[in-house]
């Protein structure tokens, strides 16, 4: 089976992890701050706080905004559940806006329609590594005084109008799950240029305690510390950070290969009557976390899915819209008719395999299999 996504781990990654295992610090040690520093350098931002997952990063990014309980936050339904779950953890109400068919990203015009007096923030997701219409979203945020969180779990290394993703919202979140642009096994990071938000996120990562293990270590350090807010243990280990440091050196190469694969798909699928290939907007540096196509209306997606899987192509569906899930239906008044674009995309979308280690011949095999459909 050719999987839809896969990590790329080499001997160097393994060596770096083994070095940490033989060192004094397995967690909260020097590798975590080194990883944070090189993330800042790479993105061109001021602060990075590494945590144990992208979901944890979203949770404390939202928490750091201190929004009043029950506030509404507008987000996309066409994402992994972690995006809007982060709002539920923080007693906030997700309000879903419809998406644009071409990029599957949140539609700024529908954001405008969903704004009420209770709206306090927007979480936008760069679907597949294609940045949202960030200029339009920032304009809305300025006009209505809304905070912005960018869930860039798909978009580490992507860019928008010449600037790296991580420089646009109040807080940006990246994920280091194995299928994401780089991996630490599990892991994530919050980046920001705002010193107050960075400080809060740092506290929230470690129980709300104002001194971490490293600052309480050594001949001049004291024993005292304060707990200033109700945080969690979302700390990243040095084992993970060492893997992340080694992976980050290869990110541009990974993204280069992802772009080659996407271009090859676009070329080979050009004119194929069964699928609509994805677009890349002007000014966008695409991360190509996933490569999705829309099937022609006459094709039954579920039959096509089975056909591809039988032929050992690990296709997938990203995403089941969040308002389809029973938990959300039980707790919120949601009607799929309010999201015509999301519904149409959901019914026709299929994810084809893409990952840096994928060979041209495998891309050709995927395309050949698609073209042999009935
Ligand atoms: C992967 C992902 C997350 C969650 O990240 P984890 O590291 O798996 O916790 C959140 N949002 C989106 C859009 C994702 O794809």
From TrEMBL:
Protein name (database record): UDP-4-amino-4, 6-dideoxy-N-acetyl-beta-L-altrosamine transaminase
InterPro entries: DegT/StrS_aminotransferase, PseC, PyrdxlP-dep_Trfase, PyrdxlP-dep_Trfase_major, PyrdxlP-dep_Trfase_small
Gene Ontology terms: biological process: polysaccharide biosynthetic process
Family, as annotated: Belongs to the DegT/DnrJ/EryC1 family.
Keyword Transferase annotated: yes
Gene Ontology molecular function terms on file: pyridoxal phosphate binding; transaminase activity
Enzyme class name: transferase
Pfam families: DegT_DnrJ_EryC1 (PF01041)
E.C. no: 2.6.1.92
The organism's place on the tree of life at top rank: Archaea
Keywords, in A-Z order: Aminotransferase, Pyridoxal phosphate, Transferase
